[in-house]
Amino acid sequence: SFGFEYIEFFKVFIKASVILLYPSNILVKSSHYFRYIILFFAVFSVLHSFITFFIGASFLEFNLVNPYEIKQLDGQSYVGYIFGSYIDTFKNCEIGICTFRNNGPFDEPGYWGTFLGLYIAARRIEFKSSEFLILFLSGVFTFSLAFFALIFLYFITLLRKHFLSIFISVFTFFLFLLIFLPTIIEQYLFSRLSFNSLFLERGAGVLV
């Protein structure tokens, strides 16, 4: 056991050393390309979310193979679209409006939402930029509790002087959803605050 852990540590150390020894211009270029890769997936996730929101269904959707047995037992299936997917049990249509928890390039919406929240905060992306708008909307459509919490903390950090106005805006937004779209709030937010009683573990996106 000790030998295996030592080998794993050594492998990570070698990889980290190689990255650190790369010429700085390669690291800068890699970061630059990574930024556009994230934007690429975010744009398509936002577009498909809007299409579903206004139309309810999309001819661009197709069924995907569900590789997770636990999700199959829970009756969950993956629905794919161009460069993304979502889980069919997290789709809800109410008063002519259809929403779903967008997975983006990941296999769960919470992973994508958490990543976007951390990515926005780590890069300190300006609020007024188009990049922030795209990433923010993509995160919103994951309905990820982690994303909303991370973005809220990010707003507080950068706009400490305007904390009260931020709090009122966020409270008003959720109050509006609670009044006019209660089913969506229940399915996407409140129902995910408890553990799955059948499998004793969180389902896809239950906590995040």
Descriptive report:
With 208 residues, this protein is α+β, with helices and mostly antiparallel strands. 59% of the residues lie in helices and 12% in strands. It contains 8 helices and 4 strands, in the order H-H-E-H-E-E-E-H-H-H-H-H. The protein has helices at 2-21, 24-55, 69-73, 109-123, 130-140, 145-158, 163-180, 182-188, and strands at 62-64, 78-81, 84-94, 97-104. It has a 4-stranded antiparallel sheet, with helices on both faces. The protein is globular, with a radius of gyration of 19 Å. Residues 193-207 have low confidence and may be disordered.
Mean pLDDT: 76
Low-confidence stretches: 193-207
The topology string of helices and strands comes to: HHEHEEEHHHHH
Oligomer category: single chain
In percent, how helical is the residue content?
A: 55-70%
Number of beta strands: 4
